[in-house]
Amino acid sequence: MTITIAVDGMGGDHGPSVVVPATVDFLRRDPDCSVVLVGREETLRPMLARWSAEFAGRIVIRHASEVVEMHEAVASALRGKKDSSMRVAVDLVKAGEADAAISAGNTGALMAISRFVLKTLPGIDRPAIASILPTVGGHVYVLDLGANVDCQAEHLRQFGIMGALLVSALEHRERPSVGLLNIGEEDIKGNDVVKQAAELLKQSDLNFYGNVEGDDIWKGVTDVVVCDGFVGNAVLKSSEGLAQMIAGGLKEEFSRNLFNKLVAVLALPVIRAFKRRFDHRGYNGASLLGLRGIVFKSHGSADAYAFRCAMERAAEAARQRLPERIAARMALIHPEAVGA
Amino acid sequence: MTITIAVDGMGGDHGPSVVVPATVDFLRRDPDCSVVLVGREETLRPMLARWSAEFAGRIVIRHASEVVEMHEAVASALRGKKDSSMRVAVDLVKAGEADAAISAGNTGALMAISRFVLKTLPGIDRPAIASILPTVGGHVYVLDLGANVDCQAEHLRQFGIMGALLVSALEHRERPSVGLLNIGEEDIKGNDVVKQAAELLKQSDLNFYGNVEGDDIWKGVTDVVVCDGFVGNAVLKSSEGLAQMIAGGLKEEFSRNLFNKLVAVLALPVIRAFKRRFDHRGYNGASLLGLRGIVFKSHGSADAYAFRCAMERAAEAARQRLPERIAARMALIHPEAVGA
Question: Is B187's pLDDT higher than 50?
Fold first, then answer.
């Protein structure tokens, strides 16, 4: 089966200078895939020229005259730029010309456009954003990371179902464990929504582990961690900030004086091995779940390696027909909601 | 003015083996303070014997027959152990025999006991827990860290006021800046409660910075960050977990083989300097704010240095009459609520 990925060629901090080499690398490694590269033809055509023979028929350029800016207001991107590379990539999924879309552009705009163009799956109230984070011994999928605030218990249950199916699809695992992010103070044990969500998840046929706390995310206690998008976003952003502070502090100490600099040179291979182990680039590719189509979001600052990793995730989700899996599961739970 | 601190001598992972040396060190450094050490007299008396001459009259032992366990249910600690060292320490504040209480015990129990014994200040709906975290260039106070979930906008405003007054009292700063933790996705910009809280904080006479995101906590963008206790606890716990994962990963890489171990020996002074810089022990001492009395919580695993730091914070809060400052500010805002 050939999988076609519609790639927003203009999105992200680096645009085509990252997307084009990532696409080339992706196509070389996965001979069953093809790519529709969406964006300004006059920009993309010359960049692809040297590979036109190698990938004849496997890369098509689809011209789109506009670009959604990284900090552009969602309303402007959604209503004002109907010929943006982001929008056209998602349109291609809607039209059945691509099996998945991917963009490194503005997350809010991508979610709004995807939701508007593709619509949510039957039985899903709200789409969610799921990302992968490194853990002590592997990695964990966390959702929602900011698409939804003020979630109700039923939404958290749906996130649990979608997260478990995402792990099954991408990692071919049968019953991934699902944890519900909660807090541990004895007298409160979480807010009402989380308490209700725990009940719903217990009653579901998921492999529900129970409550997890913030530190359990990094311990890899479960395969999936479910939370409200406000909490998930706060945790994700603060983790990024903390990791940056630690990395920056170490760098400063290692360059404080000549002795420290010499030690740094010796320590470089050790530090590099450490970095490889928790390399966030390998975890690139957040999934916009719950839509009638596959959309992946690459980190805006991704390099070609990271963008290619996200493309591989999108291709695997398409191969595994992730939206159909989610729809089928929801139909079992809410047959009335899907008109079955 | 002599400040008397009631110290729960039995709380925390290490009990008196940490509390006693911390108390000795604290009293040596602050000749204007005295301590009532609360706990089992038969345990504490022999441990203090060698310092009885040095601190004659500055350490008093108050016997308490029970101990609240670290994982004991709050109800059991509150209703079942009226002669616990934690309870008696808080009772001493209520009775005016101590200016502040401090415990390294169970946070939930300490908050429940403090709230029950001391009651909240007029105009304060809910007490909050405020902690200090290191930032790139200094430190930041964050509240609430788990005392309240399901906060309303008015609660967040009160947290902002209390947090600002805490910084003023402990650091002698006039108008500390206050940020409201929010998320940045363009189309949502936070939940309804946070949006309303931002309006209330704008209208207040606080030095309100506006919204901050998770990574801004570590960048030290503001002096105070205000959030719901659920979010604050999730961020705090996940940060602890991430820092542990990074530290553990570095340790593993540096001990992977003989060469790495040799590099580690050379790098030790650099790593130590780094650790000192972000030493969480110096930030020990969470404040239970909004009560009619001063209560501080030390981390359960604190060592003597960390516990002493928390004692110093409690003493300074007492010296600055923090509860009176909060009450006075609330009386200006809600004269009707305080019967003025």
Answer: no
Tell me whether A146 touches chain B (CB under 8 Å).
yes
Is any Cβ of chain B less than 8 angstroms from the Cβ of A184? yes
pLDDT higher than 80, residue A338 = no
Per the CB < 8 Å rule, is B273 touching A253? yes
Q: What is the DSSP string of B117-147?
A: HH-BPTT-SS-EEEEEEE-SSSEEEEE-SSS
> Measured over all CA atoms, what is the biggest interatomic distance in chain A, rounded to whole angstroms?
72
Q: What would the pLDDT profile of A57-108 be if each residue is shown by its tens digit?
A: 899 999 999 999 988 989 899 999 999 999 999 999 999 999 999 999 999 9
CB of B216 within 8 Å of a chain A CB? The answer is yes
Phi then psi dihedrals of residue B90, to 5 deg: -70, -40
Q: Does residue A321 come out as left (phi exceeding 0), alpha (psi in the -120 to 50 range) or beta?
A: left
CATH topology of domain A1-124+290-322: Isopropylmalate Dehydrogenase (3.40.718)
Per-chain mean pLDDT for chain A:
92
Which of B107, B112, B266 faces A266 most closely, judged by CB atoms? B266
Q: What is the DSSP string of A85-109?
A: HHHHHHHHHHTTS-SEEEE-S-HHH
CATH class in words for B126-287: alpha beta
Judged by DSSP in three states, B293 sits in coil
Considering the four listed CATH numbers 3.30.870.10, 3.60.15.10, 3.40.50.2300, 3.40.718.10, the one that applies to the domain covering B1-124+290-321 is 3.40.718.10
CB contacts of A151 in chain B (<8 Å) are: none
Cα–Cα dist A317/A309, whole Å:
13
CB contact under 8 A, A266 and B270: no
**Which residues pair with residue A129 across a beta bridge?**
A288
Instruction: Decide if domain A130-282 falls under CATH 3.20.20.70.
Output: no
Residue B111 sits at the chain A interface (C-beta within 8 Å): yes
Contact A214 B241 (CB under 8 A): yes
User: In A, which residues are within 8 Å of B258 by CB distance?
Assistant: none
Domain ranges within chain A, ordered by starting residue: 1-124+290-322, 130-282
Q: Do domains A1-124+290-322 and A130-282 have the same CATH topology?
A: yes
Q: How far apart are CA A285 and CA A297, in angstroms?
A: 5
Is B138 part of the contact surface with chain A (CB cutoff 8 Å)?
no
